[in-house]
Amino acid sequence: MHRAVQGLLIAALLAVILAVVSYTRADPDLWGHIRFGQDTVAAHAIQRVDHYSFVSDVPWINHEWLAEVITYGAYALAGGTGLALLKVLIVAATLLIIVRSWPDALPSRLRLWLVGAVLIGIIPQAEHVRPQLFSLLLFAILLRRLVAPSRHAANDLAEIAIVFALWVNLHGGWIVGGGALAVWVAFAVFRDHARRLFWVCAGLVAVLATCANPYGWRMWQFLWSTVSLGRREISDWQPVYALGTPYVIIWLFIAGVATALLVQRVRQRTIDLASLTLVLLFAFASFRVNRLEAFFAIAAAMLLTPGWRAAVERQRASPPPSRASLVLAGFIGAGLLAGALIVTIQNVACVRIPDEGYPEREAAPAMAAAGLHGRMLTYFDWGEYAIWYLPQLSVSLDGRRETVYSDATVDTQVALYFDPSTRRAALQRWQPEYAWLPTSLPLTAALKADGWTTLFAGQQSTVLSARPAKPLDVPRLADGRRCFPGP
Fold first, then answer.
1. Which of 154, 212, 249, 446 could form a disulfide with 420 if both were Cys (CB 3.0 to 4.6 A apart)?
2. Is the model's pTM score more than 0.85?
């Protein structure tokens, strides 16, 4: 009976983890990712010319095309449930790789703490279905190969090549993996004399593999010119201290776990400089850029555990659990298991669209029903939502940022949102017929003052027309939970 109850409690714990991981919210770019993936599948080719925006002014470098195709495939197969299940599979695979990298000597209680630390670190990134998830998975695969190379160098080189060839087509996070590999190779060349040639070849293979993309070497040029810390309008790219206390607490928790692991490794004299350097680099980088916090958690859990030696523990005789305590534990485990499975089923049935931060559900159907077409000034976070629902309207800005817009174009529009004093020159140049903006945005009030006609007015968003027009007929839609794709 004791073993049965223990197994039930383990199953309940795994179910709770699954319930947490399965909770999924729609990211502002999700509509675009699926639309662009659908376009790629339909055309059997990468779209190199943008036709969704009327101000795009650079060639479209879609560095996430493969992730978009996969995401579209999941959506085409099972709708929002397919998207949630795709996310769960990627996160589960990442956790499995991390757990399997741990040495047998790692205590069971510490394993639970580490699983919790990794989950806490990656959940902020894993709340959404987006290409970043693939970076977490491939980063874990890369680290496992670095800390535990096999006896067959050719197989290791092939695995590294495959990882980077996939990564460069899935998400720009491959540059993080490339930096980690470069640091590891730099140390390995000096400490691992027997495999020095292998590590040099590993670095060269990774570099060559990143050229296996539709743009070749131009991908390096693109990332070199676009990756920076100055993305003030994207919360993921802000320092943790600028995002509020919860984000600081998460970082401090991961740092605390990493410190505890490091202290134990130092005591056992099994720490190596490459692992220590990488963990410290990710600690600093994730403090400066919140998006890297998940990489910090994975790096700490995988780089500070190899070489762990079993600690000598005093065996204390403990009385066997009573029948009453086993029955109580069984009831608790069964309740947790059932509740977690119910929550998981509810989670995978709906990729949630938060009411806050998104336009009213009636706005897009009203514009579609009215047959609005032409150029529409759009808010940054709503661009790809508009691309999905209003293909007859061309947007001014969306989440693709530097892949289709120059820095000058992005900066001009972001500044225009909050300081509309320069609006007349910008509007004269772009000639938009409509605007769909947050109601509270300064630009919205300025356009109204200029005489733009209000077609739709809500607490979240306002639709304006540059020419006189009658208000939109607003449909009556059922209230309740909003699930992707909405409206």
1. 446
2. yes
